[in-house]
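Sequence only, no structure available. Ideas?
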Amino acid sequence: MTARTVLHPPPPGEYAHLEPLPDPPRTPDMQQHIRIAAFDSYLRAYFADRSDVLVCGGGYLRHAADNRAERLAPDCLVAFGVNPEAIVARNGYVIGEVGKPPDFVLEVASRSTGRRDYTVKRAGYADYGVGEYWRFDHTGGRYHDAALAGDRLVNGAYEPIRINEEPDGVRWGHSPVLGLDLCWERGALRFYDPATGEYLPTPAELQDQRDAAETRAAGAESRAAIERAARLAAEAALRRLREQLRRLQAE
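Reply:
I predicted one. Tokens follow.
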């Protein structure tokens, strides 16, 4: 096995001024796009309190920016210990600039690229040094070689991550990189947090949580306003009583 060069990331913002990479060509697939957007929202919310975590997709992943022969464009990738803003400004993930490969890549099956996901892309991401590579097929394996599959990089080569199948048809595997379980359930992919024993909320659930929080905040603000008005009224009544008492004592 050829030893890999150890790269050191540049200071934040050092390469953000560079010319953005071009957008990769995309074959329209509305179902795929909707699912990618959903997975992106799950993970962005989960890692929202960390400024050094990049969750994105759709741009090129390359060793070198000027190598146009490198044409892999992950649907969703996660990288820890990086400068997200600079990578987004670059419109692509250039390993030689960032200083490390992504830690996690997920590809979503489509009619046009399904076979490439578990053949060409699997070999390519291993070469890039991506720590985990996952594949999700909402059809249950019509476009991919499996409904759900994951690989972990060991000594430069991918080894399959165990996928469990429950009696009700749910398939799931654990991602050590994310610390989450990826679960295929009736054609949908959910992320399960073993630490909390709960699924990460869907975009709709997140919106419901935000709405509920706003309602609680508005209710608390309303109660505070009522309490303040009552306090001011009580203070005014007390002042009037004191003034009346003062006048009576003066007569």
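The radius of gyration is 27 Å.
Hope that gets you unstuck.
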